[in-house]
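> call design_seq(struct)
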């Protein structure tokens, strides 16, 4: 196992975090038609998993030219609040997590397009905290990171 020196996550690096990086990977984050997840018209993807938008928020659904879709809850001021979900073109899950006060908070999971987990870990007020686990596209664990309030304390690779 190999340890890595501490790395700090700042507000600037958070702006290029998972969700915004995901948009860049899709080549465009322009809103597409108001399409849910391929199920019945008007279906709300984040509620599919028993997670409803908090009171005083509305759900925003965005379809991308690549065929990927994402859904999140948004306040009247345009801030993300509540569950977030994204799906690959074929409907397999891509990202799942939650926002609080417009920053990632709580448990987040990212999957490869083949349906296998890629990363999972916890955000606390927009920065990684605790243990993060990384997998290859076959599902084998490739690394574990330990974070404390946005500072990477260690990276262990089996």
């Amino acid at each position: 196992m190999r340890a890595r020196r501490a790395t700090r996550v700042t507000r600037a690096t958070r702006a290029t975090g998972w969700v915004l990086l995901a948009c860049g990977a899709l080549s465009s984050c322009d809103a597409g038609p108001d399409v849910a997840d391929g199920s019945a018209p008007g279906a709300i993807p984040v509620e599919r998993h028993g997670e409803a938008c908090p009171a005083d928020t509305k759900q925003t659904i965005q379809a991308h030219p690549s065929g990927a879709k994402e859904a999140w809850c948004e306040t009247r001021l345009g801030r993300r609040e509540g569950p977030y979900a994204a799906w690959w073109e074929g409907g397999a899950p891509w990202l799942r997590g939650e926002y609080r006060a417009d920053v990632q908070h709580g448990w987040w999971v990212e999957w490869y397009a083949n349906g296998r987990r890629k990363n999972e870990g916890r955000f606390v007020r927009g920065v990684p905290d605790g243990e993060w686990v990384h997998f290859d596209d076959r599902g084998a664990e490739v690394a574990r990171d330990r974070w404390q309030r946005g500072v990477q304390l260690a990276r262990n690779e089996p």
